[in-house]
Amino acid sequence: MYKDSKKLQNDERYARACLIFAKNLGLIDDESYEGVRARCVEENKKRARQQENGEVFYGLTRYTFKEYLEWELTKFRLDFISESKEVKKAYNFREIPKKELKAYYKSNKDLFTRYSGDRFPYRDVKLIIKKRIREEEFENEINDILCKLD
């Protein structure tokens, strides 16, 4: 039970840090759990209207708080990794030199190897490598916020 309790605390801290970062990026106005609840209610209302109108939408027809929080945290991460316009307004992405991309490719060969053992060519996975580096950058930002929360 202690391990589960500790994991839950860590998950809550991580979620809190992601919400703070999302607010810093201008993706949300309120980083509190009350803000998440309010956005969840609005999203559920929007989906109910879409369903009533016979509109096509993807995902659940109704979110629980936990499901919505997970969806929102994933969206924030993807907005950052894909360098969305909204994020670019608030965050100055560093240029990733070609040398760094190639070094990542060489040092992570297992990520770019097919089942049969041959590797995907660098040019085919260059964008994936860039996104993996952005994902590490995202995690570094979250870890900085976590350190400040302590």
Explained architecture:
The protein is mostly helical and 150 residues long. The protein is built from six helices and no strands. It is globular, with a radius of gyration of 19 Å. The relative contact order is 0.12.
Write the layout of secondary structure elements.
Layout: H1 2-24, H2 33-52, H3 65-81, H4 85-90, H5 98-107, H6 122-149
Largest sheet: none
Distance between the termini: 24 Å
DSSP summary, beta strand count = 0
Query: Which word captures the global form?
Result: globular
Rg value: 19 Å
Q: Which class do the helix and strand fractions yield?
A: mainly alpha
Return residue spans where pLDDT drops below 50 for at least 5 consecutive residues: none
SS strand fraction = under 5%
Helix fraction?
A: 55-70%
Annotation field: number of helices? 6
* H/E topology pattern: HHHHHH
The pLDDT mean sits at 92
Keywords:
150 residues; mainly alpha; 6 helices; 69% helix; globular
In short:
The chain is mainly alpha-helical. 69% of the residues lie in helices and 0% in strands.
